[in-house]
Amino acid sequence: MNQLDRFESRLDALTTEILVPLRVSKTVQSKAISELYALADELADALKDEELIPRRLAGKLWFVFTQMLAEADHTRMPDDILMSAWGYQDRLRRIFRSSRSASPPVPGVPRY
């Protein structure tokens, strides 16, 4: 198992740990969110010299973020969910920084 496979495996476990309680009871699992932030930071460091990120991994990283936003739309008190999502978004920006591509950005098209 290579390093990216280990990251992906950890991400899969955290995705379940975060999204199931979020979907069922709209509660944020602070410990799991902290672990997600740490994983994203580690991944950003590991990928800093890589030009491409595997599509499957990129999709899983963004899935957590988009699901957090979707769940925030379905609750009366979304503040905790949104704070967690925006904290994660900052880490995603570091992973998917614009310096990965030599071409100019296309508006509305993610780089991965």
Describe, in plain words, how this protein is organized in 3D.
This protein is mainly α. The protein has one domain (3-98). 67% of the residues lie in helices and 0% in strands. The mean pLDDT is 89.
Keywords, please?
4 helices; 112 residues; mainly alpha
Briefly say what this structure is.
67% of the residues lie in helices and 0% in strands. The chain has 112 residues and is mostly helical. The two termini are 22 Å apart.
Task: Provide the fold topology.
Elements (H helix, E strand, L loop, with lengths): L2 H23 L4 H17 L8 H18 L6 H17 L17
Helix pairs in contact: 1-2, 1-3, 2-4, 3-4
Structural class: mainly alpha
Query: Which outline best applies?
Result: globular
Helices, by number, come to: 4
The oligomeric state is single chain
Strand content: under 5%
* Low-pLDDT residue intervals, each spanning 5 or more residues: none
Report mean pLDDT, rounded to a whole number: 89
Task: Give the total of domains.
Answer: 1
DSSP strand count: 0
What is the chain-wise order of helices and strands? HHHH
Question: How far apart are the first and last residues' alpha carbons, in Å?
Answer: 22 Å
Q: State the helicity in percent bands.
A: 55-70%
Radius of gyration: 14 Å
Q: Biggest sheet, in brief?
A: none
